[in-house]
Design brief:
Chain A: Keywords: Membrane, Transmembrane, Transmembrane helix. Chain A: It is found in: Endomembrane system; Membrane. The complex is a heterodimer. Chain A is mainly alpha-helical. Chain A has helices spanning 3-20, 24-48, 83-102, 120-139, 143-152, 154-164, 169-198, 205-208, 215-232, 241-248, 251-276, 278-304, 309-330, 333-364, 375-378, 380-393, 400-413, 417-424, 426-442, 458-476, 479-495; strands at residues 62-70, 75-81. By secondary structure, chain B is mostly helical. Classes of the chains: A mainly alpha, B mainly alpha.
Chain lengths: 515, 633
C-alpha cells in the first residue's frame, strides 16, 4: 500500500469535499473526520515502521515510492520516511485535528476580537490542503519535490493569515510571503545548481548525498539552502517576520506556522545542509552556532520585553529555534536526536500555548498582557492548562521539552563547551518570560474586564487535553520517539563523516576528542 | 578510611517496589488536580492517606535494610530506560536516601495532618493538598534517584511545587511575585547544576551515581573542582545559601505549613543532600570542599544576623533556616564525619524547625494571621501546647544541653574546629547569635506584656494541629542524642558515605562546646534583657545602621536589583527597541527602497501581492527551465 501517497491524498480529497458540502457545520465536521482518518492512518504506518531498518543505506527511507515526474530533468515524485521525517509527520497530523477543533469558531466572525466573517469552508479546506503539503515536505526524497512543497506550503498559509488574521493581517501576510519567497528563490538556484554540478541527472536525494566534493562549490550551495532554511526556521537575524505573522494569524494557523512550517527550516538544515554539503556544514558550523546562541539569548530577552502575548510566544520560539539549530550543528548523536525531538516537542508545547492564548483572546478580545490579570480566579482550568503549557515552554523536567533541551545541550557540550554554557543561560531567561507572563495575566487581583470570563468549555478541553497528555507522556517516556529518531540521526551523522564524540568512561582519552 | 559500599541491584521485598513511595503521592496529586471540585470534600484526606502510605513504604524499606548486612545496604532498583544511552530512571535505596525518605514522608505526613486544620477555612484546600502531594513525590524522586538526571527531575519538581505553594494565594500580588522570584533564583542554581551534569557526562560518560563515583578519583583535579563548584551553585540556589539566598525570606508568603515542610524541613536541605551525595567529587577536590565550607559559614552568619532584626515571626524563622542550613553546608564540606553530623543536623532541624514553624502557624491561626511579633506578647498562658512545644523547639535549636540540636550542631562545630580554627570559631559565634535571636523570638511571642491588636482573641489550635506539634517536639528532644551518641548515625550512614578510621568521640566539656554554651547563654541573656525584661515597643524603633542592614536582608535584594534586575530591564528595552527599529526597520526600509516608494509597498500589501507572488513563482519556473537547458548542453 502506498502509505505516504494515501496520507497526502486523503486530506486533498477531504479539502475538495469540505468546499463542496452545503453547510458550514458539516464542512467543519467533515474536516475534523478527515484529519482524524489521516491521524489513524499515520498511527498504523508508524507501527509498521521498523527503526532497525534505518541503519542500512538501502532501507533508510521506508514506505518509499518513486515515480518519474519530469523524466527529462530527472525529477521524481519520490517519497519515503526515516525516523526523523516520521516523527515530524506525526507531529503534523496530530496537530491538524487539534487545530481544526480549536479553530471551530475562528472563521465565524464571533468572538470578542474576531475579524469580519469569512468563508468558513475555505478556511477548513485550506487547513486540509496545508496538511497534505506538510506531509509531503517531510516525506519528499526528491530534492526538487521538496522544493515544490516548500514553496507551495506558503500559499495556504498566506491566505490563512491574510484573510483570517487580526487587524494587521495583510501586512503580516505579505511580510511572511516575501521573506519566504526570498529564501525560496535562493534555494531554488542552489537546487538547480546542485543538479547541474552533480551531473547525476537526478534530483533524488539519496543519490546526491556525497556527490559534491569541491569545497568551494559546497560552500555556495550550502549557503543557498541554509539561508532559505534560516529564514524559514527562522534563525536570528532572519526572524522579524515571525512575530508579525504569528501575532496576526488566527491561533490555529499560528500553531501550524510555528509548530510545523518553521520546523521545515530546521529539518532542512539537518537533512539537506548537513548531508549534501558536509564539508561546508563543518566550515560554517562556528558561524551557525554563533547565530544560534545569539538567537537563544536574543529571542528570550526580546520575549521578556513583549507586551503582547502572541508576539511573546513567537519570540520564545525564536529562542527555541536557536536551541534546535545548535543541536543540529553540534553534530553529535545526542544533540541531533535532541534537536529532532525538540522540533516535535516544541510543536506540542508552543501549540498548546498559542491555542490557550487564543481561547483567552477569543473571550476578552485583546492580546495585550496588560488587559488581563487574575484570570486564575475566574477560569482555573484555563489558567492551569496555560501554566502547564508555559512550564513546557521553560523546559521543566517531567515535561517533554526538557528531554529535548537537555539532549541538545548535553550533546552540544560534548563538542562546544563555551557556546553551550552561554546557551544554557537561556533556561534562566525562559523562566523569566514564562512566569512573568503568567504572573501578569493569571495572578494578582482579578481585572474588571476579566471578571465574567467563562472557563474552558468541553470542546476547548478536548483541544488542550491531548496536547497536555502528550507533553507529559513524552516527558516521562521519550524512549519510543527517541528509538525512531536515533538510528536516523546516526545515519545522517555518518553521511557527514564526522567523528562522533564518543563519551566513554575512559577519562584520559577525553581531551580534544572530536575537536 | 572505609569506602562506601558497592551499589548492587536489588529487587526483592519492599525495596523492589520502593517506587511506590514516589508513585502514591503523585497519584494523589493527579487525582486531586484532575478531579477538580468533585474531590473537594475528601481531597485533604486523600492527600494525607497518600503521604502516610508513602511513609509506610519508607518504613518497611528501612526495616528491610536494617535486616541486611551493612555492606549490602546500597540497593539499586532499576525502573525503566529514560533517555536511551544517557539516563535511566532508577532508584538508589541506601542509608542516606532512606534517611531522607523517612524525614520527608514522616515530617511530611505530620504537616499534611496539621494542614487539615490550618487550611480548613480555605476554599482551595484540595488544591493545596494536591500540591503538597506533588511536592512529596518530587522530593522523594530527588533523593531516591540513582543518577543525576533523575535527581534533576526531582530537583525541578520540588521547585515547581515550591513555586505553586509560595504563590498559593496567588491573588495576592506579593505572593505571586515571591513565587516567581523563588523559581527564577533557583533557576540560576539549576543552570550551575545542569552544566555540572554535562561536565560529569563528558568526563565520565555516564550520569549514574554508581559509575561516576567509582571513576571520580581518577579524573583530573581541575575537572573535579569545576564539577564540585557547579554542583555547589545548584545547591546554593535550592538551599538558599549565599549568594542565592534572597528568595527564601520572600517565600514566607506561602501558607505556613508550606514554610515548615518545604522551606524549612525538606526542600531547602536538598542542596546539602546534593553535596553529601556527590562526596566522591568533593573529597577529591579540596578547593571545592573549602568553598563549600566558606559558603556554609558565610550563610550561617548572614542568616543569623538577618534573624536578629526580623519582627515578622516567619521571616525570623526563615533567617534561622538559612543559618542552620549554613551549618549543614559547613558539615557537608568536611568529609565523611562532617556528612554524618550534617545529615543528622538536617534531620533534627527538620523536626525542631518544622515544630517551630507549625507553632508559629498555630499562633497566627489564633491571632487573625498576624505575623508581627511586636503585636504578640504574653501568649504563653492562652496557648499552652503551642507555647511549650515551640519552646522545646527553641531549646533544641539553640543547643540546650541534651536536646537534639545540642548534639548535632556541636558535632559540626567540633569537626569544623579540627579542620580550620577560623571556620570553627565563626560557627561558634553563629551559635551565640542564634541564642540571641531565637530567645528574642520566644520572649516577644510568648512572654512579656500583651501587645495584641484590638479584636485578637488568641486561642489554642485544635488537636489536629497540636498533636503533630507534640510529636515533632518529642523528636526535637530525643532524636539528636539518639543519632549521635555512640556514633549510631555515623555507622548507619557509613555504607553510603564512607567512614574514617578514627571515629570522633563525644566530649561534653570540650573548649568549643563550652564556649558555644557560654555564648548562647550570653545571647539569650541579652535577649531577655532587651525583650523579656524590658518593654517591647509596638512599632519598631529606627535602629542603628547595623539593624537596618539586617532588616534589609543584608542588602541582598538591593544588590540583585542593582546588578541584575535593572541592567536586565535596560537590556530588554534596548533589545526590543533594536528589534523593532533596527533589524525590522532595516528590512522594511530595504523593501521600500526596492519598491521605489513606500506607497508602492503599501499597494503591494493591499492586493497586488498575489500577482507579485505568482510572478515570482513563474519567474522561478523560467529560471529552472533555462538552467536545465544550459545544464544539458
Amino acid at each position: 500500500m502506498p502509505w505516504l501517497s494515501t496520507l497526502m491524498a486523503v486530506p486533498v480529497v477531504g479539502a475538495v469535499g469540505v468546499s463542496l458540502v452545503k453547510s458550514d457545520k458539516l464542512a467543519k465536521q467533515l474536516a475534523l473526520v478527515v484529519s482524524l482518518v489521516v491521524l489513524v492512518l499515520t498511527a498504523v504506518m508508524a507501527f509498521r515502521f521498523d527503526p532497525a531498518l534505518g541503519a542500512a543505506k538501502e532501507t533508510r527511507f521506508q514506505f518509499a515510492e518513486v515515480y518519474d515526474w519530469i523524466p527529462a530533468f530527472g525529477v521524481h515524485y519520490g517519497v519515503g520516511v526515516d525516523g526523523i521525517a516520521l516523527v515530524l509527520i506525526a507531529l503534523s497530523v496530530i496537530l491538524v485535528p487539534i487545530v481544526i477543533l480549536a479553530s471551530w469558531h475562528d472563521a465565524d466572525g464571533t468572538g470578542a476580537a474576531a475579524p469580519p466573517r469569512r468563508s468558513v469552508k475555505t478556511y477548513f479546506a485550506l487547513l486540509l490542503v496545508l496538511e497534505a503539503m506538510m506531509i509531503g515536505v517531510f516525506a519528499a526524497t526528491d530534492v526538487f519535490l521538496f522544493y515544490v512543497f516548500f514553496e507551495a506550503m506558503l500559499i495556504p498559509m498566506y491566505f490563512m493569515i491574510g484573510s483570517y488574521g487580526g487587524a494587521q493581517r495583510s501586512y503580516a501576510a505579505v511580510k511572511f510571503l516575501l521573506y519566504s519567497l526570498f529564501g525560496g528563490l535562493l534555494m531554488l538556484v542552489a537546487v538547480i545548481a546542485l543538479y547541474v554540478i552533480a551531473e547525476k541527472g537526478t534530483f533524488m536525494f539519496p543519490e546526491l548525498v556525497g556527490v559534491i566534493q569541491d569545497p568551494t562549490t559546497q560552500k555556495w550551495l550550502f549557503l543557498g539552502f541554509f539561508i532559505a532554511f534560516a529564514v524559514k526556521a527562522p534563525l536570528w537575524p532572519f526572524h522579524t517576520w515571525l512575530p508579525d505573522a504569528a501575532a496576526q494569524a488566527p491561533a490555529g494557523a499560528a500553531v501550524l506556522l510555528v509548530g510545523v512550517l518553521d520546523k521545515v527550516g530546521t529539518y532542512g538544515m539537518l537533512r539537506f545542509c548537513l548531508e549534501l554539503f558536509p564539508d561546508a556544514a563543518k566550515f560554517f558550523t562556528p558561524l551557525v552556532i554563533t547565530l544560534a546562541v545569539i538567537g537563544i539569548i536574543y529571542g528570550a530577552i526580546v520575549a521578556i520585553g513583549q507586551t503582547d502575548m502572541k508576539r511573546l510566544i513567537a519570540y520564545t520560539s525564536i529562542s527555541h529555534f536557536g536551541f534546535i539549530a545548535l543541536g543540529v550543528f553540534a553534530m553529535t548523536t545526542n544533540a541531533g536526536a535532541g534537536a529532532t525531538l525538540y522540533m516535535v516537542n516544541h510543536g506540542f508545547s508552543t501549540g498548546a500555548l498559542f491555542l490557550i492564548t487564543g481561547f483567552l483572546i477569543y473571550r476578552r478580545g485583546s492580546s495585550q498582557i496588560a488587559d488581563y490579570g487574575g484570570v486564575q480566579k475566574v477560569a482555573p482550568v484555563l489558567a492551569g492548562t496555560f501554566l502547564v503549557a508555559g512550564l513546557s515552554g521553560l523546559s521543566l523536567p517531567g515535561l517533554s521539552t526538557f528531554v529535548s533541551e537537555f539532549m541538545v545541550l548535553l550533546g552540544s557540550y560534548e563538542r562546544y563547551v563555551v557556546p553551550t554554557i552561554i546557551a544554557t543561560t537561556g533556561v534562566i531567561l525562559a523562566a523569566v518570560y514564562i512566569l512573568w507572563m503568567y504572573q501578569r495575566t493569571m495572578n494578582g487581583p482579578t481585572a474588571e474586564k476579566v471578571k465574567g470570563l467563562p472557563d474552558l468549555d468541553a470542546r476547548e478541553r478536548w483541544v488542550v487535553g491531548p496536547l497536555i497528555v502528550l507533553i507529559i507522556a513524552l516527558g516521562f517516556f521519550p524512549k519510543p520517539a527517541l528509538d525512531m529518531i536515533n538510528p536516523a540521526v546516526d545515519h545522517t551523522l555518518s553521511n557527514v563523516h564526522i567523528s562522533n564524540v564518543h563519551v566513554t568512561p575512559a577519562v584520559a582519552e577525553k581531551k580534544g576528542a572530536g575537536q | 578510611m572505609q569506602s562506601p559500599a558497592e551499589i548492587v541491584p536489588h529487587s526483592t521485598g519492599v525495596v523492589g517496589v520502593s517506587w511506590l513511595m514516589i508513585a502514591l503521592p503523585l497519584l494523589g496529586a493527579a487525582i486531586l488536580l484532575l478531579g477538580g471540585r468533585r474531590t473537594d470534600r475528601w481531597g485533604h484526606l486523600l492527600g494525607v492517606v497518600m503521604s502516610l502510605a508513602s511513609f509506610v513504604v519508607a518504613v518497611l524499606a528501612f526495616v528491610q535494610m536494617l535486616g541486611l548486612d551493612p555492606g549490602k545496604r546500597r540497593m539499586a532498583v532499576e525502573l525503566y530506560q529514560f533517555i536511551p544511552g544517557v539516563a535511566n530512571i532508577g532508584l538508589l535505596i541506601d542509608p542516606l536516601s532512606i534517611s531522607f525518605a523517612l524525614l520527608i514522608t514522616g515530617v511530611g505526613s505530620l504537616i499534611h495532618i496539621y494542614s487539615i486544620g490550618y487550611m480548613s477555612h480555605d476554599p482551595d484546600r484540595r488544591r493545596f493538598f494536591a500540591y503538597l502531594n506533588l511536592f512529596v513525590s518530587a522530593m522523594l524522586l530527588l533523593v531516591l534517584s540513582d543518577n543525576y538526571v533523575g535527581l534533576f527531575i526531582g530537583w525541578e519538581g520540588v521547585g515547581l511545587a515550591s513555586y505553586l505553594l509560595i504563590g498559593f494565594w496567588q491573588f495576592k500580588p506579593s505572593a505571586a511575585v515571591a513565587a516567581k522570584k523563588a523559581f527564577i533564583v533557583n533557576r540560576v542554581g539549576d543552570f550551575g547544576l545542569l552544566i555540572g551534569i554535562f561536565t560529569i557526562w563528558t568526563t565520565f560518560g555516564s550520569v549514574a551515581f554508581k559509575e561516576v563515583f567509582e571513576a571520580a578519583p581518577g579524573a583530573q583535579q581541575n575537572t573535579l573542582t569545576a564539577i564540585g563548584l557547579l554542583l555547589l551553585l545548584g545547591a546554593c540556589g535550592k538551599s538558599a545559601q549565599l549568594p542565592l539566598q534572597s528568595w527564601l525570606l520572600d517565600a514566607m508568603e506561602g501558607p505556613t505549613p508550606v514554610s515548615a515542610l518545604i522551606h524549612a524541613a525538606t526542600m531547602v536541605t536538598a542542596g546539602v543532600y546534593l553535596v553529601v551525595r556527590s562526596g566522591a567529587f568533593f573529597e577529591a577536590a579540596p578547593t571545592a570542599q573549602l568553598v563549600v565550607t566558606i559558603v556554609g559559614v558565610a550563610t550561617l552568619l548572614a542568616g543569623a544576623i538577618i534573624g536578629c532584626a526580623k519582627d515578622d515571626i516567619k521571616k525570623g524563622l526563615a533567617g534561622s533556616t538559612m543559618s542552620q542550613i549554613g551549618y549543614m553546608m559547613l558539615g557537608a564540606g568536611l568529609g565523611p564525619v562532617g556528612y554524618a553530623f550534617a545529615i543528622a543536623h538536617l534531620i533534627t532541624h527538620g523536626f525542631f524547625k518544622a515544630n517551630m514553624f507549625l507553632g508559629a502557624g498555630s499562633v497566627m491561626h489564633g491571632m487573625n494571621d498576624e505575623v508581627n511579633m511586636r503585636k504578640y506578647g504574653g501568649l504563653f498562658s492562652v496557648m499552652k501546647v503551642t507555647a511549650i512545644t515551640f519552646i522545646i523547639g527553641y531549646l533544641a535549636i539553640i543547643g540546650f544541653p541534651l536536646l537534639s540540636g545540642y548534639f548535632t550542631k556541636d558535632g559540626i562545630i567540633e569537626t569544623a574546629m579540627e579542620h580550620n580554627q577560623i571556620l570553627g570559631w565563626l560557627a561558634v559565634v553563629g551559635a551565640g547569635i542564634t541564642g540571641f535571636y531565637m530567645s528574642r523570638m520566644v520572649f516577644m511571642t510568648f512572654f512579656g506584656k500583651r501587645r495584641w491588636e484590638d479584636g485578637a482573641h488568641p486561642h489554642e489550635s485544635p488537636a489536629v494541629m497540636t498533636v503533630p506539634l507534640i510529636i515533632l517536639s518529642i523528636g526535637s528532644i530525643f532524636l539528636g542524642g539518639f543519632l549521635i551518641l555512640g556514633n549510631r548515625f555515623m555507622q548507619f550512614l557509613a555504607p553510603a558515605v564512607g567512614l574514617p578510621e578514627e571515629l570522633p568521640s563525644f566530649h561534653p566539656f570540650s573548649v568549643p562546646g563550652l564556649a558555644t554554651l557560654a555564648l548562647v547563654a550570653v545571647g539569650a541573656a541579652f535577649a531577655w534583657f532587651r525583650y523579656g525584661a524590658a518593654e517591647v515597643p509596638r512599632v519598631a524603633p529606627r535602629g542603628s545602621f547595623l539593624t537596618t542592614f539586617a532588616r534589609r536582608d543584608l542588602y541582598g535584594d538591593a544588590l540583585n536589583e542593582a546588578l541584575f534586575m535593572r541592567p536586565g530591564q535596560w537590556l530588554t528595552r534596548l533589545a526590543v527597541f533594536f528589534d523593532n527599529r533596527g533589524i525590522d526597520g532595516l528590512v522594511n526600509g530595504l523593501a521600500a527602497a526596492i519598491g521605489g516608494t513606500s506607497g508602492r509597498l503599501r499597494r503591494v500589501q493591499t492586493g497586488y501581492v498575489r500577482s507579485y507572488a505568482l510572478s515570482i513563482l513563474f519567474g522561478a519556473a523560467v529560471v529552472v527551465g533555462a538552467l536545465l537547458y544550459v545544464g544539458n548542453m
